[in-house]
Amino acid sequence: MKLLALITSLLYLIPTAPAASYTDKFKQYQSLSRLAPIQLDDLSYDDITSKPRDYFATVILTATEARFGCVLCRDFQPEYDLIARSWNRGTKPDDLRVLFGILDFRNGKAAFQKLMLQTAPVLLVFPPTVGPYARVDDSPLRFDFSGPISADQVYAWISRQLPDGPKPPLVRPIKYMRIVSGITILMAVVTLFTVLSPYVLPVVRNRNLWAAFSLIAVLLFTSGHMFNHIRKVPYVVGDGRGGISYFAGGFSNQFGMETQIVAAIYAVLSFSAIALAMKVPRIADNKSQQVAVVIWGAVLLGTYSFLLSVFRAKNGGYPFFLPPF
Amino acid sequence: MAESPVDVLLKGSSGRSARGLLRIIILVTIAAAAVSSRLFSVIRFESIIHEFDPWFNFRATKYLVQNGFYDFWDWFDDRTWHPLGRVTGGTLYPGLMVTSGVIYHVLRFLTLPVDIRNICVLLAPGFSGLTAFAMYLLTNEMSSSPSAGLLAAAFMGITPGYISRSVAGSYDNEAIAIFLLVFTFFLWIKAVKNGSIMWGALAALFYGYMVSAWGGYVFITNLIPLHVFVLLCMGRYSSRLYISYTTWYALGTLASMQIPFVGFLPIRNSDHMSALGVFGLLQLVAFAEFVRSFIPGKQFQRLLTASIILTTGLAFAGLVVLSMSGVIAPWSGRFYSLWDTGYAKIHIPIIASVSEHQPTAWPSFFFDLNFLIWLFPAGVYICFRDLKDEHVFVIIYAVLASYFAGVMVRLMLTLTPIVCVAAALVLSYILDTYLKTSPGPVTRGRSNDESSEGLRSARSPEVGITSYFSKAVTTSAAIVYLLLFVAHCTWVTSNAYSSPSVVLASRMPDGSQFIIDDYREAYYWLRQNTPANSKIMSWWDYGYQIGGMADRPTLVDNNTWNNTHIATVGKAMSSREEVSYPILRQHDVDYVLVVFGGLLGYSGDDINKFLWMVRIAEGIWPDQVKERDFFTPRGEYRVDDQATPTMRNSLMYKMSYHNFNKLFPMGQATDRVRGAKLPAEGPQLSTLEEAFTSENWIIRIYKVKDLDNLGRDHSNAVAFDRGNKRKKASKKKGPRVLRSE
């Protein structure tokens, strides 16, 4: 930190030196951090973006400290690191100079105020003012974050701001940890399975288990669970009078709870059909068999009628119904 | 008890033939019901091709009939995707067109001069009759009960889930594909049951036909290997399985590669790799079984098992490496988006934009399948009772297809057959149980002694139903539900699925029918009033219809193979006139067509689709088109005086609302779709001029102006014509140039 402060103060002196030294500015900043993005503060930010510059300066203004509660900033931090590292490590044209810097709010309150930033993070790209890629319009280009975003998208945007030509590709480091742990877990599972197979196999081969599993899957999917998952519908919604409305209005709308109710209705109907088909003919006693038939038949009728009434509420103009509801 | 005449008919050998005859009569009746319930639209409107894609199929069929098969194979269509053109012969599934072409020529040969349009219109109902028959065969393989097949055929014939894609006039690939799907599955089950090369080869043959007809063949390509794989995992390897699968795979893959559009995909695409992998696995397992039969020795067998697992693992790793290195193409986008449901929305907005690719809410399931939807899980459960090879197939199919149908509305179509099978299984089981006349123990029920294996509910022996009351109650309830099902299907078909969507129908306040025929009016205007070579730009939804009905070249159509070209149209629609005009000029556009429902309250119009145009354009030009600019700061999508400047200056907005306010008294213009009051001052168009507006304003056609004779730009020329004083040049910020990119 001390060293950084020293260099910063040194840098502070440089602008007072003749303007011809702007070519050194790039080298100096580059030497600060060979791969990772440069940590900036107010002074160095002003310096790095000061006017005679023969490089692109890419600066992210962010607030990573926990007390600001900027999840986006913290999530994007490693991604930005990745961009800077990929760029600095990769091969690129000699005269295409790009600096990657980070200005944290902790170090750069003045810069945030100057730019009148209300939100973070913000990515700025300052085009060069001199040199082969100098632009007439040297005002910074701004990238606004509207949600979680990956390094690839941001890197694509940065690349578009840079002049055409070859650029280093974005390289994600190989996660050896993950590979090793994956293999370990796989081997552990295989070992466990081999050891436990006398106990596990009967369970795996249990027909009832698989039947339950398939039925649950079918009920889940046919009651519109995937719709909830994709559209991220609310679980329940108030009806405006303090109560809950269980069923969404409209044919192609639904709530999370609604689908669970519907799945339960389907389940009841299916199980009464199964009971009528398979359980009842196996009851040996005449009387109890008849009672069972009547009960299951009534359950079937009542639930189906309820289902129809729910469907009628969703789909106005549906003409059919069954007696109870 | 004296023998009644009915008993003579139903017992003994004459009874068998009588039942056979009855069965045929019932099947013919079901087929007739299936065909006739699909004719609502023909009766109500006329014999007309529906919707969008059918118009292309119809056009292609006409080309095939006129120019012969080989010309069709080499067809390069220069009237679509102007200026690129489309190698149509190599980029379509020809099964549908060839089928109707063959029917046409056969009828000709029989000296029945039928118009090709009528064949196209009636192909789908005709094949639905065949589907019902195929369904009968398939379900009969699953159940010993003679009624299950008939019930399944009846369900399949009238269930709205299938009718939705096969009404008369809906001349789409699915029209024949569902028949082929069901029939291929029947042949496959037959092959597995008998272990016969003949059935396997037949399955491959129909699989090849299916590949030529519909892209959904990938479903079969993955389902059959999955069936085999699960059977292997269950330790049910048999020579029957080996024979049927290897026959099917080898012949089926060869057959599928004969279609130019498919070509080498079966060996180079991840979608097909599971079939190849299971083929390899099956060889290994067969080899192991073979060796095992010669060498006893427990140690050696263990070694063998281990080596097989190792080889499989290595092969899998090889597959992964090959697909990583790009030899095997990755999952195709459409297929991939089924698994990663968020994928399409981020990466391929054009797929996500199609309404039939949306996820399915539960009312759709009930709407399309009615009471079958709750018989379906019960039927799957019944399959666990015997759990023969074919029942495993039903279970896998049921779980997979219900997942797919939940993710995408259109895949309800692949779910419907299995729902019909499962529901018929359980219902026939119930009816058989409760309709048996002789009370007392029934011989049919297997008394389960392998109690650890069987289902919990099937352990005790079956005794049958003893009281007549129970029988009467259950049977009459079943009949009520069945009648309700029929009523539901008829109602749904008549109300929801019989609209050609080219011709719209609505009710007047007095109850009489009001036909809205704007589409055809506009397309015929184009056909009769524009030069045969004038290029029409519209959003891609209408490309096929313009090609089919107006016979004019289009820029983009429903084939959507070139996202950039579609994005170009999206950009032209969503940009300012100054930006759009050069794009229109560069693409030789003569007319621009927009669909506008604001006057009538027709919600499927272009302003409602507009955000997709913006999104797709933004995908290619993120710096020039931004979705955010079309939303107000409060995040609303508005068209009234609160609309953002970008929205109000976009070409689409201007074309939609051009002169709209003149229909209403001052300041009263209202958009009935979005329920918004429009600003008193309407938008001004300078580079386009209105050429035609249909009766109900649904279709509006604009002519692209030529360059100005005096070299002015169009806004100046229009301002001059209107008599406005020319603005001082100094007021402009800079020299105005025609932007060309």
From TrEMBL, chain A:
Any one of the GO BP annotations: protein N-linked glycosylation via asparagine
Alphabetized SUPFAM superfamilies for the sequence: Thioredoxin-like
Keyword Chaperone: no
Subcellular location(s) of the protein: Endoplasmic reticulum membrane
Membrane topology designation: Multi-pass membrane protein
Signal sequence range: 1-19
Keywords: Endoplasmic reticulum, Membrane, Signal, Transmembrane, Transmembrane helix
Principal localisation: endoplasmic reticulum
One GO cellular component term noted in the UniProt record for this chain: oligosaccharyltransferase complex
Family matches, as Gene3D superfamilies: Glutaredoxin (3.40.30.10)
Endoplasmic reticulum found in the keyword field: yes
Annotated TM spans: 176-196, 208-227, 261-278, 290-311
Annotated family: Belongs to the OST3/OST6 family.
Record's function text: Subunit of the oligosaccharyl transferase (OST) complex that catalyzes the initial transfer of a defined glycan (Glc(3)Man(9)GlcNAc(2) in eukaryotes) from the lipid carrier dolichol-pyrophosphate to an asparagine residue within an Asn-X-Ser/Thr consensus motif in nascent polypeptide chains, the first step in protein N-glycosylation. N-glycosylation occurs cotranslationally and the complex associates with the Sec61 complex at the channel-forming translocon complex that mediates protein translocation across the endoplasmic reticulum (ER). All subunits are required for a maximal enzyme activity.
Annotated PANTHER family: DOLICHYL-DIPHOSPHOOLIGOSACCHARIDE--PROTEIN GLYCOSYLTRANSFERASE-RELATED (PTHR12692), GH11935P (PTHR12692:SF0)
Name of the protein described by the UniProt record: Oligosaccharyl transferase subunit
Automatic annotation (TrEMBL), chain B:
GO cellular component: oligosaccharyltransferase complex
Reaction(s) the record says it catalyses: a di-trans,poly-cis-dolichyl diphosphooligosaccharide + L-asparaginyl-[protein] = N(4)-(oligosaccharide-(1->4)-N-acetyl-beta-D-glucosaminyl-(1->4)-N-acetyl-beta-D-glucosaminyl)-L-asparaginyl-[protein] + a di-trans,poly-cis-dolichyl diphosphate + H(+)
Region: Disordered, residue numbers: 718-741
Biased composition, class Basic residues, residue ranges: 724-741
Cofactors: Mg(2+); Mn(2+)
Assigned protein family: Belongs to the STT3 family.
GO terms (BP aspect): post-translational protein modification; protein N-linked glycosylation via asparagine
Pathway assigned to this chain's UniProt record: Protein modification; protein glycosylation
Signal peptide from the UniProt entry: none
Protein name in UniProt: Dolichyl-diphosphooligosaccharide--protein glycosyltransferase subunit STT3
Keyword Glycosyltransferase: yes
All residue ranges annotated as the STT3/PglB/AglB core domain in the record: 535-585
Compartment list: Endoplasmic reticulum membrane
Pfam family, one: STT3
One Gene Ontology MF term: dolichyl-diphosphooligosaccharide-protein glycotransferase activity
Top enzyme class: transferase
Transmembrane segments: 21-43, 91-107, 119-138, 144-163, 175-191, 211-234, 246-267, 273-291, 303-329, 365-384, 391-409, 415-435
